[in-house]
Design a protein that fits this description.
about 300 residues, 12 helices
């Protein structure tokens, strides 16, 4: 799966997040599982939630800009990135329990919640099931109802529909990881010039982390739970909502964003030209400006 992250060995958590500046990586234990996260800046809290198979690196361009005005908290979800990958079911409600526990541990009573792709789905779930914890909502490239009807990515479709065991997927990744990583990135990122050797190396090392594939496969199998318990209620979101979508998104096309915009009353849709499924990483200049304007208003 797509990850723009990872700079440590598979068995340890590095002390620093090395992006444009060194940011300490912190950890907290939630329900017996260690979660890694970044916590920078002061002010109203903003929670950044990565997507399926992603990590905190998807938000590397937001740390400095947003932390000038806000407290920016960026976790690696349980089962992803540098966080623990326990043998749990990874149901949407279970991931939400970890997320609420994470907010409680950091004494965040409520926050502006920004989610990308599957992270947007968790943000919607949080807004619906724990409405007092979400002050405002930003959904970047996700998460529509009838996900499989909207999903254009062959890679994600195969990941969700596969019956292969995790050990076999891990073996395939070990044998063909580099070429698979590049193919995935080309689905997610519109501008191929951004897929540099450094980005490929970083992404491939993250894919080698022990225990990564079982959570991914399990999350995919739980998609019907999202469709049954959350998707039908998207129209009941009451928080002020900004929707951001790359016009060249090859995972969920812009039409999915337009449908989401029509479903959530009063929401605003921002179209990002020349950007794919991670517009905050691919076009941070434009997306950061929109985020700051929305979060400050």
């Amino acid at each position: 799966m797509l990850t723009l992250g990872g700079c440590a060995s598979t068995s340890s958590i590095p002390p620093w997040f090395e992006a444009f500046e060194r940011i300490p990586i912190k950890t907290v234990t939630i329900n017996g599982q260690r979660m890694a996260y970044l916590d920078v800046g002061q002010g109203p809290p903003v929670l950044l939630i990565h997507g399926f198979g992603g990590s905190m690196w998807q938000w590397e361009h937001q740390q400095t800009v947003l932390s000038a005005r806000f407290r920016v908290i960026t976790p690696d979800l349980v089962g992803a990135g540098l966080s623990d990958k326990p043998e749990i079911e990874y149901r949407p409600d279970e991931l939400l329990t970890f997320l609420v526990g994470f907010m409680d541990a950091l004494q965040i009573t409520h926050a502006a919640v920004v989610g990308n792709s599957m992270g947007a789905g968790l943000a919607i779930g949080l807004a619906l099931d724990y409405p007092t914890r979400v002050s405002t909502l930003v959904l970047i490239a996700g998460f529509p109802a009838h996900v499989m009807d909207h999903l254009n990515s062959p890679t994600l479709r195969r990941a969700i529909e596969t019956n292969a065991p995790a050990w076999l997927v891990s073996l395939g990744n070990w044998l063909f990881g580099w070429s698979m990583t590049e193919a995935i990135l080309r689905e997610f990122i519109y501008d191929p010039a951004l897929i540099t050797p450094a980005v490929l190396d970083r992404s491939n090392r993250n894919r080698q982390r022990s225990g990564l594939f079982r959570p991914l496969l399990t999350i995919g199998k739980n998609l019907p739970i999202w469709e049954e318990h959350f998707a039908p209620r998207i129209g009941k979101v009451t928080q002020r909502t900004l929707i951001v979508w790359g016009e060249e998104d090859r995972v969920f096309p812009i039409e999915a964003g337009e449908t989401l915009n029509q479903t959530i009353t009063g929401s605003t849709l921002i179209r990002v030209p020349r950007a794919g499924h991670i517009p905050q990483w691919e076009r941070p200049d434009l997306v950061n400006s929109e985020l700051l304007s929305f979060l400050r208003s």
